[in-house]
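[Solved] Which block belongs to which protein?

Original post:
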Amino acid sequence: MSLAAILDFLAKASYFAAALLFILGLMQMGSPVTARKGIRWAGVGMVIATVVTFFAPSTWGEHGIDTLNLGLMVLAIVLSYAFWVWGKKVPITDMPQMVAIFNGMGGGSAAAIGAAAMINAATFTGECTPQAMAAHACMDTTKSVLAILGALIGAISFSGSVIAWAKLDGRLDKRFTFGGQQVVNLLVFLACLGLGAYLVFALNVPVIIAFFALCLLFGVLMTLPIGGADMPVVISLYNAFTGLAVAFEGYVLQNESLIIAGTVVGAAGMLLTQLMAKAMNRPISNVLFSNFGGGGGSGEAIKGSMKPIEASDAASLLYLAEKVIVVPGYGMAVAQAQHKMWELCQQLIKREKDVKFAIHPVAGRMPGHMNVLLAEAGVPYDLIADMDDINPEFATCDVAIVIGANDVVNPVAKTDKSSPIYGMPILDVVNAKKVIVIKRGKGTGFAGIENALFYADNCSMLYADGQEAANKLIAELKAVDSGGGH
């Protein structure tokens, strides 16, 4: 057996082992208890796949190392390291936009692989022998179709993720619409498909460039009209797109690791997208083809007024309560108040109060955002409850504390058919005996509508920064204990 054959066998075996580690890692990430272990396993798999690629026969040309391939690989690693350093410095409040841009890089990489494969095949002048195909100098029809599909999906994911990042980072308005937008989007998408179909039969460099330009444009147009409240669904959807694109391009490169990893990521991303869409009560067809997140009218006028409460009175309510449910949202992340809120809850638990945290599936700006924040603060996993599990308990809850959450606790989602969020499943905070909302001001949530909960008779507003409010509540609770409070 030749050295090249031995290296090829070892490379394929290593890629398979890396793919298994990806799958095992993803399975471990399904639970907060084992998520860290899962990340490590998947990381080991990625290291194996990366190192092996340097020695795989596909990296070598006929006369030794292909310097172009090697240079591109080194450049990719350097860029990845730069992103890793940046990621370590990103605050938790900016994590959603970091996830969006990282996901976009994955889609862009898949699109670049497809572009390179198509351009190589378009400029290849020799006979398309099995040896030439193995060297990726030319492609058969199957590879051409998958390369084009992967490039299309990857390009859309890349440009769409960049727009999602810009929206989440506050660099773009939440929505951008114009007359006939859906028709324009459809025409651009059909043009992408048309050029892609043409390229299957006749690879041509100018057409390839036009194809990618239109695909990138469609990703931008598809994301511009989406409102920020639906951004968790968008991030999840583009994650699924990226995984699918990687799997297609893995087949083009005959790389088992990319095929398996891309398939797993694509399947997991689509499942998560379905769960997010269900949590927003929006079908996947709306996610793909409508201006979802755009909402409608502002809804019916809300009667009543917001009722402020002092920290001392709020602490007295907590002191007398037996059951307390905390509902965190993005505002808690902005205030970095998760540690102080957990400190407050520990004070309540010491006083033998039943304390739980209620998490809406799309609370924050990305799936699992609140879970990450609470885990960072050291909140035990058994105190964190999902929406479906905790909703029946609000009726027996003495005090519900809402910190930073808005649209996910708005009762008009169940009562006002004219509201943009009508039909969206919410946390039934309004059913609690008493509700305390910690909020810096009277502004609206990400959906841009008033929250009827804040005007409810059983709701009081504690106006303060999240950390400041938690500190005051802790101090006043201790004062009540010592007899100095109300």
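(Second protein starts here: sequence line, then its structure tokens.)
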Amino acid sequence: MPKPSDTKQRILDAARDLFATQGVQRTSLQDIADRLGITKPALYYHFPSREDLVRSIIQPLLDDGEKFILAAEARAETPVRELIEGFFDFNYRHRAPVIMLLAEMPTLADLGLIDKVLGWRKRLTELICGPDPTLDQAARAVLALGGLQDVCMQFPDAPLEELRTAAVDGALDALGR
């Protein structure tokens, strides 16, 4: 993947910051251009629309998440602890865009970005519980996977290894393992 130009990277950074503080819908491209001291046409050169900008921010999360799930699905059998640890690591690495996804769910759903993320939980549930989980198994998987995401956002200042251990152990407990 080519490295974005300095201006493009500055636009992405400013947009992430403004989207996080103001929300996607309340942040105009003019707000982003003003923050950077560039013209709106200069911003349009790199991103023809706000939707393109949002997709550019979320795409690394989508690519990394899909890569993680495909690798797990390609293995004959992935130990549940390894899946849970990998899902924690993925969410910890992508805390900022995950927070944006949650805060801007209707906007991102309109862009078709939420379906893929929600599909990951279903696929992970099947990897953890098998292709036809019981309601009990599926509910426990939702608690475990959702809890892992929440922990990554709720405790941003906690020491990583301590947080990882507590989160993974809690998720395994929720799964009854």
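Accepted answer:
You had them paired correctly. Confirming on the second one: The chain has ten helices and no strands.
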